[in-house]
Amino acid sequence: MARFLIVLLTTTWVTMRSISCSEEKGGNETTRVKVTNPDLLRLLTPEQLEIGRSLPSSPPMGTSTFHLSRLAREEIKVAKKLNELQLLLQSVMRVLNRYAMSWSELSEADVGVQGWAEHPLHAYALTKHVALGWPSIEEALLHLQEKTVVVDQLLKRRNTTGIPTEEDLTSVAGGLARAHDFYSLNLTAISQSNLRSQLSPNPVPAKIIPSVWDLYRIGKEAIRINIWSSGVDFLRNALSRYNNSLVQTLCMPSSTHSPTRCQDFDGNSHPFDKPGDMSRLPEEFQKAVKMHDQVLERKGFRTKQHSTHQKPLDKQLARKKKYHKKQVTVVGEVGSLTEGQVQYVKICRGEDLRAPNMTFNLYCRYINNSSPQFLIGLLKMEVHSLSPYVITIKGVVTPSEAKALKQTASRFLEKSSTFRYNGESEVSYQRTSSTAWLYEHNDHHLPLLTTRIERLTGLNAVQYTGSETYQVVNYGIGGHYTVHHDATASNLTYNRMATFLIYLTDVQQGGSTVFPWLGFGVKPSKGMGLLWYNMKPSGVRDDMLEHAACPVLFGDKWIINKWITYGGQLTRVPCTINEEDQVQQPLT
Question: Which pLDDT tens digit goes with each residue over 203-220?
Answer without folding.
Answer: 888 888 888 889 999 999
